[in-house]
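Thread title: Can someone regenerate the structure for this chain?

I was given the following input by a collaborator and told the matching structure tokens would be attached. They weren't. Posting the sequence so someone can regenerate them.
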Amino acid sequence: LKEETTWHRVVAWEGKDIAPFESVKKGSRLAITGKIRTNAYEKDGQPRYFQEVIAQTLREVLPQKPGEVVPS
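Best answer:
Regenerated them for you:
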């Protein structure tokens, strides 16, 4: 299988269930829970839509070490 990267727009505010932003860098693997919100705007007279995740929890997922089992 070819690895694929999917980008999502995420809106988050630091708080109890949100990881400190300083620890999140480009390429970080994240586990995010939240709600998907669709927004609209107009460009050149045409409606445009985009979706974003409003994060309720956000944490960094550390890479797995060889032989390590991830709890489910």
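The chain has one domain: 10-60.
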